[in-house]
Design brief:
This protein is mostly helical. It is built from six helices and two strands. α1 crosses α5. The protein is globular and about 55 Å long.
């Protein structure tokens, strides 16, 4: 969530809206490698072949999110802002530098975890989670409604926000339904013992 939203913000929403072409193939290959890194980390730890760490899970998720952000920014720039498809996202050194600085700052914030910035990290994580859902729903609204390219409109942005709220509320409702309200906490412990 953090890398996807941070990079889409840098590559699309804040700047570079005119670049709507898919990233150059070397950048797409690096992005695919980031996604495969997350798949490898999740698959091998799930099967019990090795134990993952929080830092490795963060880095693999960050790599996958970054790998999806570049083509995601191209799609947003194309569908929402009617950007030029001949101009590729991430093809200019200044775009890569901006993405690298923003991504590097996020990595430092979450891996180094300086205590004065703890609340900032929590707020950015929340903003990134909600922002990722919103950006993907915004793209969906523009694809379904058609006639995009006029820029970001308040009505379509609000529709994307409504879809985000409905998805999150529905997810919470399904979780409560299937977990029968969730396990009751045991006094003095964080988790109830297995029955």
């Amino acid at each position: 969530f953090v890398s996807f939203f941070t990079l889409v913000l840098v590559l699309s929403l804040l700047r570079g809206r005119d670049r709507a072409g898919m990233p150059p193939w070397p950048l797409m290959a690096v992005g695919a490698a980031g996604i495969l890194f997350m798949v490898w980390d999740g698959f091998t730890s799930y099967l019990g072949w090795r134990e993952s760490t929080n830092a490795l899970r963060f880095l693999s998720g960050f790599a996958a999110g970054a790998g999806m952000a570049f083509p995601g920014a191209a799609l947003v720039n194309r569908e929402v802002f009617a950007g030029d498809r001949s101009r590729k996202v991430g093809s200019r050194p200044v775009d890569l530098a901006a993405a690298g600085l923003a991504g590097g700052a996020a990595v430092l914030l979450y891996l180094w975890r300086p205590s004065p910035f703890f609340r900032l990290g929590q707020l950015w994580l929340l903003a990134s989670m909600l922002g990722t859902f919103w950006v993907l729903n915004l793209l969906l609204v523009y694809l379904v409604a058609g006639k995009g390219g006029g820029g970001l409109t308040a009505g379509r942005a609000a529709m994307a926000a409504l879809l985000t709220v409905l998805e999150l509320a529905g997810s919470y409702w399904l979780h409560r339904l299937f977990s029968a309200g969730g396990p009751a906490p045991v006094a003095g412990s964080r988790r109830a013992p297995p029955a």
